[in-house]
Write a structure and sequence with these properties.
The protein has 313 residues and is α/β, with parallel strands linked by helices. The protein is built from ten helices and ten strands.
Amino acid sequence: MTPTSMGYRGRFAPSPTGPLHAGSLVAALASWLDARAHGGRWLVRLEDVDAPRCIPGADALILQQLAACGLHPDEPVVWQSDRAAAYAQALEGLIEAGWAYPCVCTRKDIDRAWAARGVTHARHAERVYPGTCRPEHGGLQGRPARAWRLHVGRVQAARHLPAPLPWIDRRLGPQRQAVEREVGDFVLRRADGLWAYQLAVVVDDAWQGITHVVRGEDLADNTARQIVLQQALGLPTPQYLHTPLVLGANGEKLSKQNGAAALDVSDPLRALNQAAQVLGLPAQATSPGQALATWVALWRQRWASASPSADRR
């Protein structure tokens, strides 16, 4: 059964580490428009598993910002902090299958392992895990576990997944990533006991029946590893569309980490127009509700039945 035949279900999944900013609204608006253009349902999930980074009250503020812009979820909001039992069950299944293993390595350990092979970790580059704690390499050898990782190679072999793994982005077109070589065995549960983003998002997308994921382009390189994890857990793979990013004055992605200003919703139409223009939609001089209706019609023409194309804005 294809995602479309199941009925469209999309979502916006911000982390409450601060209020929404201009870049966040682009992703929120795109996911809302895609759901409306397909006649589907739009959900909001607050990804608060990284509790130390979450700011008290940020979740309520995010929901207020969305509401001010006319973006209302069709079902009750979900907090990932309420979903620990589901993540534990998923991890237990992977352990029983022999596809997850405990790891003691710190980032310094990983860097030292690569340095011993003459490789230096580049800034901003993926820190590829060298497989130090894999069972076939001797495992923990009596040391206490710090984290749990997915054994990518075993999953790929068991599920007959090609390497590099290909997937199609509705905006960016054909994509591919050699997960084992370019990422390595990624973390499922962190050394501090917190659940990793990859496991939580895959489990929750399946639980909520998400058929279409629309999110920022900075998350595109997470997709292949999420597909591997979906295959390991026997879960469906949604369709993906990654939106253009809003850049800061320094040319880097606008984010809370580089001081992005909180989204000003005192003039919702202005905020929506700015987000719409990033998505290649014309600014509107009407009300937020009328602007959203106009953009839904335009989005439907562009995306609701379009085949993936790398030249689309």
